[in-house]
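quick one, 490 residues, struct below
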Amino acid sequence: MGEPGALRMTGRALRAEWTKLRSVRSSWLALLAMIALTMLLSLVAASLSTSNANQTKISVDQFHFVHQPMAGDGTVTARVAAQADSGAWAKAGLMIKDGTRSGSSYAAIMVTPDHGVLMQADAKTELTAPSATGPRWLRLTRTGQSVTGYESADGSTWNTVGTLTVSGQPAGGQAGLFVANPPKLHLLGIGGGRIPNYEPFLGEASFADVSLTPAAGRTWQDTEVAPAENEASHRAIGEGAPFAPVLEGSSTWAADGSVTVTGSGDIGRAGMGGINLTDVDRVRAGLIGIQFGLIGAIAIGALFMTAEFKTKTIRTTFVARPRRTAVLAAKSIVLAGVVFLTGLAVTVPAYFITRPMQAGNGYTAPIYPESSFSDPAVLRAVLGASAFLALIALFSLAVGTIVRRTAGAVIILLSLLVIVPTIAGGTSESAYAFINRTTPLAGISILQTVELSPLSTAVVTGTWTGFAVLCGYTVAALAAAFWLLRRRDV
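---
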């Protein structure tokens, strides 16, 4: 008998708080402000922000090549017996290439220390076998303009990585082994800013059981594949794909036919082979209006409690429902639900409306990858944006309960969540990053959907780490509000 009665009391409390919320004009004005401000800032940001990053150098083709001529169709095979872990995207493998000029057509299959086996063609297409780790047998077979890549753990059972069409491949060309190791990025602090500097590093791999069929009958040759000197001299460090002078590699053959190869550089393009030039998260940018829309969430959260203190109707509420904590709990549930659903009503349209605007302003693949609304990361960002607004409203409700004055609560909240971050963003990058890590605004990290370039300063905390910070503030503020509400005289 007790449980149905408790459920009825809970239901009545929720209906009472819902009635209060929808019957107060200021509540609807706050929700409308949240919608309008969120959409406005998102649209302004999407329309004014432009990028020409895809017009910069987005591919890189520089490595040490140990090769022989390949006439017509053929196969090159080798076992990568060992590879130095000189970087997560260090590359060692086989290549069939139209000569030795940087930028000429190629097909390659390679192993990496942390990302398994990759197969590339002309820095346009990439296939992966991420589960393939450790020493691997690799094979490339060319038939006309089709190149098929294989990998094996033992040299007996071969797995097909895929077949790629390489339209620029002539009947001849060069085939052999290659090693590349991406340059290390150092951000140098100069005059309060940060200047990127790429430093070349040698990678190393040992190959065994090397074979080329049909045999060319030639000795293996070494070539440093690198951009022409005039091309390199006109590229600014940090502009486009990572560039650094290629360190001279080498090959050392042993009596048993194995060879150790060293080399630096990289192959691939933006979005391929670990080359990341993305400096803007398109999904986050399309939802960034919540940083402005949170003003509406602050208003409705603070007013939902302080309005009753101001009009003294809180006394009537507590007479009707003496359990004060139940009243605050009901307010929290109703407020969170209303703000979350209202948030969805603006974040979903904002995502779809800003996508074509961004694309029209240069934010397109390959540097800025496309996404689908059904992608888990996108769904998490859209739902997370609404959850962010709901948590801000709950945090504001707690502050309003503690302060009990509308003006005082709103001043505190606007100062913490709007004014100070805005000033810091215009004056100090480090201060702005600190605020976005340590205040409730850290919850905006839930919008992150892609890994940004190491040069980007947009990400200051992990996706869920920042959201956990916001949750922590909200829980702590609500706990204080519940404690004070029980002990104070109204």
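The mean pLDDT is 90.
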